TrEMBL record:
<feature type="domain" description="Tyrosine-protein phosphatase">
    <location>
        <begin position="465"/>
        <end position="717"/>
    </location>
</feature>
<dbReference type="InterPro" id="IPR002049">
    <property type="entry name" value="LE_dom"/>
</dbReference>
<dbReference type="InterPro" id="IPR003595">
    <property type="entry name" value="Tyr_Pase_cat"/>
</dbReference>
<feature type="domain" description="Tyrosine specific protein phosphatases">
    <location>
        <begin position="653"/>
        <end position="708"/>
    </location>
</feature>
<keyword id="KW-0812">Transmembrane</keyword>
<dbReference type="Pfam" id="PF00102">
    <property type="entry name" value="Y_phosphatase"/>
</dbReference>
<dbReference type="InterPro" id="IPR000387">
    <property type="entry name" value="Tyr_Pase_dom"/>
</dbReference>
<keyword id="KW-0904">Protein phosphatase</keyword>
<keyword id="KW-1133">Transmembrane helix</keyword>
<dbReference type="InterPro" id="IPR000742">
    <property type="entry name" value="EGF"/>
</dbReference>
<protein>
    <recommendedName>
        <fullName>protein-tyrosine-phosphatase</fullName>
        <ecNumber>3.1.3.48</ecNumber>
    </recommendedName>
</protein>
<comment type="similarity">
    <text>Belongs to the protein-tyrosine phosphatase family.</text>
</comment>
<feature type="transmembrane region" description="Helical">
    <location>
        <begin position="359"/>
        <end position="383"/>
    </location>
</feature>
<feature type="domain" description="Tyrosine-protein phosphatase">
    <location>
        <begin position="748"/>
        <end position="1018"/>
    </location>
</feature>
<dbReference type="InterPro" id="IPR000242">
    <property type="entry name" value="PTP_cat"/>
</dbReference>
<keyword id="KW-0378">Hydrolase</keyword>
<keyword id="KW-0472">Membrane</keyword>
């Protein structure tokens, strides 16, 4: 060993960059590894080196790994290792680790030399060599033993067992429904493998049939002859039959001599050949001596014979109190004998007295009578020559004589022997006659002044309307023989919905083509007894040509269609117009010239063309938001359509049809008739209106719900129809609204109060249907009333109804489908606008799930300045450009910020973290000013509408309560959309529809006034109709143009100064767009 330089004092030296200590020794110290007097002690072998040992006491300056203590003789204990035993063995070690380097044998779930690595997801056991079951719920498998939560359909600690037969779901804890056919179901979903037993439906067969369906999977409809079409859900046996029917399935008419409910009533013995099975009226008239619909009234003392139409002989002896002669009511025989000089049973035979009659007197009287008759005939002929009959082309001027036919003409005349019409015959001409009242029931006077309707509606509930509806009679003394003719049954969509013989529409007969005169359609009168409508069934395949024939022959201008072609997987109406090109129906070619689709209806312009017959144009108003035998969620959309139809001038009958042509059709026609009465008489009478309709067609208005809905629709329409504002009269209209009347209230205040009252009534009438559903599966699907506890609603009194809110897809088990948001009625799409509250800490990820799942392209947010003071609010956006915010599994990245005085625009990319390619472009518009300044507000609305012109995505409006500012913005966008589309708008129609969905929208009169003031400013400065005489200016890009490509906002819109509050002329917006 090389001797180190000698020094008086020892010093510390670093060697080979290892931090150990060497004591410098002089030439007189002990040799390495020795210490003590005479160097007799041996240093510990666990000293780091032999040079570490103190030559005086043998203490080590440092120890080898695994040892500690002054002399390094203490081994590491308590699962420690390394230098000075400072390191702890891994928790993954199964026992004590190597005291030098920490290596050990691993517990299950760990791997690596030192057992510091946990098993990767999906593996477990010794050295992570085993794979978790593929039927484990992801991320739930224990790395120690492979135990996990199972996917539906599997069980066992390791989810390696399939559910036993009859069980399903997670851990197989659910039993297959007892209503599954063969009690067999899918082991994962629980859906029944072979469908449901009789009486149950849905995939899991847990839901019983509704009252109108029965049988396996509830696919069979109960007989229409069951009361309310309700039957036993298993067998189809009717709970009760409609009057006139009996039997298990109500498929048999009452036996001869019986009628009414359960056929327990006896026909009058005075009926001739039985009575009507439904109402007991004598179909073929009365026996001699009786009269009345039930033949229960005898002739008075001075009449007799069939229908008491003959008067007793003047020569009967004896008179009654009215000084009239008395005779037998059946045969007319004089009960008290004959007066002098007459004889016979009826005292008509004169007794021959032997003197000859005064022949001269008789002849003179006869000649005088003939002269009088001749003068009458000459007078009539001269008058007709001076007043020639005009050819009648206007249906309003026609009385429908041909509806009253002699008995021999009742059967449809389809035969080769019938002569064709003469060339000079006018097929459109209908002779004069009087349209008679077919009901012998007196009309109940339930008329009321228009101004009492709201009070009336507030004081009556659903049960009242149901009871009143039950009391409305069907027509009496009516027949449907032609409709029930064997040849025509195939032309009826429903076998018990047939037009009456007296009011059915007659088509022209073409014997060469074997085209008959029958179609299931009826002329319908308004309350002034003028034929205004044709109520028709939706055509089936057998009558498509006949339906088009009817449109042509009746010169129809307007068709109102109230059904979808297919509803609940059933064909309700055959399509009678082509999607493109031309289609021929018999002799008529049909082509759609134009079609425009709105949120609740489509308007089509249809051309009919016949060879040598010319071309005709009709408009079809197709309402698409009315479920069969039910009612829409609110009446505002139907009122909107009805107002368009009423504003469309026509002199021809309006064809209205749904599927059967009675329920929805009857409701729409009744709405028109009641509103017409209100306009002409300032009174309304729902009951009498429906009684009159049923005299012309059976079952008009089918259900109590439709009857109540009619009342609600009239309520809404009475507010909307007088409040339509056109561009040209907008300023005057606003001035008029602000004037106070004698009552001290302004018109605008009255209007606003009416909207609040009616929309509240409409909303309250739906309470039975508006409970937000509770889950039968997991707690995450909660009733919204429970959600108040969970911080998902900022204001517990502002809650969505179940059919108004968007449902979120639950991508993970702990997610909820709920967010406090509602769809608000827009013009072009039902779900185009969504309003919601600004997110709370617990709902911020739900907000972005909403944005992603419902493809929001524009977000408009108010009241963000309260973020620092309102503890219920939270940050939900990246703060600076090129920054990102991760919320749940969604990442929001900001690509640009454009800051203005009134708003701040952020261009965002929203994507799922797991799928970076699934990127969605979103514009976020933060509004800095919530002051109700009309000019600024209009600038904001114009900017929003410019954005929406470039994308088919939805618009989301946000504010603290999800109503006050977001609702105002949605209302204004819709109001201006409607004005641009029609050059006129009803503000109450828009606001009423919104308030029915979210009552807190437009919460005060001040905001309602603001709507009109923004509308007025738009009309005078920015409307495309402004200063062009009411004609619409063409826009470079229409506001309704949908784009299928992702949103890319042009820079000239983002930076457009015309959207700034300093702009003086917002009309330049459209030029720039």
């Amino acid at each position: 060993m090389q001797e180190l330089e000698r020094e008086e004092d020892s010093q510390l030296v670093h060697r080979d960059k290892k931090q150990f200590f060497i004591k410098v020794i002089d030439s007189f110290a002990c040799p390495p590894g020795k210490y003590g007097p005479n160097c007799s002690g041996t240093c510990s072998q666990h000293c780091f080196t032999e040079y570490n040992c103190d030559n005086t006491n043998g203490n080590c300056a440092s120890c080898k790994p695994g040892y500690k203590g002054d002399t390094c003789n203490e081994e590491c204990q308590n699962k420690t290792y390394g230098y000075y035993c400072m390191n702890h063995c891994s928790v993954g070690c199964s026992n004590i680790c190597n005291k030098t380097d920490g290596q050990c044998n691993c517990l299950n779930g760990y791997k690596g030399n030192m057992c510091t690595e946990k098993c990767p997801n999906g593996t477990y056991g010794d050295k992570c060599a085993q794979n978790c079951s593929q039927f484990c719920v992801p991320s739930t498998c224990s790395s120690e033993n492979g135990f996990c939560d199972c996917l539906p359909g599997y069980k066992g600690d390791k989810c390696d067992e399939v559910c036993s037969l009859g069980n399903w779901g997670p851990m197989c804890i659910n039993n297959c429904s007892v209503h599954c056919y063969n009690t067999s179901c899918d082991f994962q979903t629980g859906s029944c493998n072979y469908g449901c037993i009789e009486g149950f439906q849905t995939a899991n067969c847990t839901e019983p049939c509704n009252k109108t369906h029965y049988g396996k999977n509830c696919v069979n409809e109960c007989s229409w002859n069951c009361t309310r079409s309700e039957c036993n859900s298993t067998t189809g046996v009717c709970e009760q039959c409609v009057p006139g029917r009996y039997g298990n399935y109500c498929d048999e008419d009452c036996p001869d001599g019986k009628y009414g409910q359960d056929c327990i009533n006896e026909c009058s013995i005075s009926c001739k050949d039985g009575c009507h099975p439904v109402n007991g009226t004598c179909i073929n008239g009365c026996q001699d001596g009786f009269l009345g619909p039930f033949c229960n009234a005898t002739c008075d003392e001075n009449h007799f014979g069939p229908a008491c139409s003959s008067a007793c002989s003047l020569h009967c002896e004896g008179v009654n109190n009215n000084n009239s002669r008395i005779c037998h009511s059946v045969n007319g025989s004089c009960l008290l004998g004959c007066s002098r000089d007459f004889t016979g049973p009826q005292c008509f035979e004169a007794i021959n007295s032997g003197s000859s009659p005064p022949v001269g007197a008789i002849v003179g009287a006869a000649i005088a009578a003939l002269v009088i008759i001749a003068l009458i005939i000459v007078t009539v002929v001269l008058w007709r020559r001076k007043h020639p009959k005009k050819e009648r082309t206007s249906f309003k001027e026609r009385n429908i004589t041909h509806l009253i036919l002699p008995e021999k003409d009742i059967e449809e005349k389809v035969s080769e022997e019938i002569e064709t019409p003469k060339e000079d015959d006018d097929p459109g001409f209908i002779p004069d006659a009087t349209y008679y009242n077919t009901s012998s029931e007196p009309l109940v006077n339930m008329s009321m002044p228009v101004h009492e309707l709201n009070i009336y509606m507030k004081s009556h509930d659903k049960e009242f309307f149901t009871e009143q509806f039950k009391k409305i009679p069907q027509a009496q003394d009516v027949t449907t023989e032609v409709a029930e003719n064997e040849k025509n049954k195939v032309k009826n969509r429903y076998k018990n919905i047939c037009p009456y013989d007296h009011s059915r529409v007659h088509l022209l007969i073409n014997t060469g083509k074997k085209e008959g005169d029958y179609i299931n359609a009826s002329y319908i009168r308004d309350n002034n007894d003028k034929v205004k409508f044709i109520a028709s069934q939706g055509p089936n395949k057998a009558v498509l040509n006949d339906f088009i024939r009817m449109l042509w022959e009746q010169h129809v201008d307007i068709v109102v269609m109230l059904t979808n072609l297919v509803e609940e997987a059933k064909v309700k109406c055959e399509q009678y117009w082509p999607e493109s090109g031309k289609v021929s129906y018999g002799d008529t070619k049909v082509q759609v010239i134009q079609a425009k689709t709105f949120a609740d209806y489509t308007i089509r312009t249809i051309e009919l063309n016949q060879y040598n017959g010319g071309t005709r144009i009709l408009t079809q108003y197709h309402f698409t938001s009315w479920p069969d035998q039910s009612v829409p969620n609110s009446p505002w959309a139907l009122v909107d359509l009805a107002m368009k139809v009423l504003a469309h001038p026509t002199t021809q009958p309006i064809v209205v049809h749904c599927s059967a042509g009675v329920g929805r059709t009857g409701t729409f026609i009744a709405l028109h008739n009641v509103l017409k009465d209100a306009e002409e008489t300032n009174r309304i009478d729902f009951y009498s209106t429906l009684v009159r309709l049923r005299q012309d067609r059976i079952f008009m208005i089918q259900t109590p719900d439709q009857y109540e809905f009619l009342h609600r629709a009239v309520q809404a329409a009475l507010i909307c129809t007088p409040t339509v504002v056109s561009v040209s009269e907008c300023s005057e209209r606003v001035k008029e609204l602000l004037k106070k009347e004698v009552s001290g209230l302004s018109k605008i205040e009255k209007e606003y109060r009416s909207i609040n009252l009616v929309s509240k009534d409409i909303r309250n009438s739906q309470l039975d249907d508006n409970e937000v559903e509770k889950s039968t599966k997991e707690k995450v699907y909660q009733n919204t009333h429970e959600l108040k506890k969970d911080g998902q609603n900022r204001f517990p009194n502002i809650m969505p109804r179940k059919f108004d809110r968007p449902y979120l897809v639950c991508e993970q088990k702990n997610m909820s489908d709920y967010i406090n948001a509602v769809f608000t009625p827009a013009l072009f799409k039902k779900d185009q606008h969504i309003i919601t509250q600004l997110p709370m800490p617990q709902t911020v990820s739900d907000l972005w799930r909403l944005v992603k799942q419902y493809k929001i392209s524009l977000m408009v947010a108010f009241e963000l300045e309260k973020l620092g003071t309102d503890k219920t609010m939270t940050v939900y956006l990246p703060i600076v450009v090129d920054s990102s915010l991760a919320l749940g599994n969604i990442e929001i990245h900001c690509t640009a910020i454009n800051d203005k005085d009134l708003w701040e625009e952020q261009i965002l990319k929203v994507r799922n973290e797991k799928s970076k390619s699934d990127s969605q472009d979103v514009v976020h518009l933060k509004c800095k000013d919530t002051e109700m300044d009309v000019k600024k507000l209009l600038s904001l609305i114009l900017k929003i509408r410019a954005y929406t012109a470039y994308t088919s995505g939805r618009t989301l409006f946000l504010c603290r309560n999800g109503a006050t500012f977001s609702g105002l913005c949605s209302v204004l966008c819709t109001v201006l959309d409607r004005l641009d589309e029609d050059a006129k708008v009803s503000v109450p129609l828009v606001v009423g529809a919104m308030k029915t969905v979210r009552p807190e929208v437009i919460p005060n009169l001040e905001q309602y006034r603001i709507v009109y003031e923004v509308l007025e400013r738009y009309c005078t400065t920015a409307s495309p109709y402004t200063n062009v005489g009411g004609e619409k200016l063409p826009l470079t890009i229409p506001l309704t143009t949908p784009l299928t490509t992702p949103l890319t906002i042009p820079s000239h819109i983002i930076n457009n100064p015309t959207f700034d509050e300093n702009s003086t002329d917002p009309s330049s917006v459209y030029n720039n767009v």
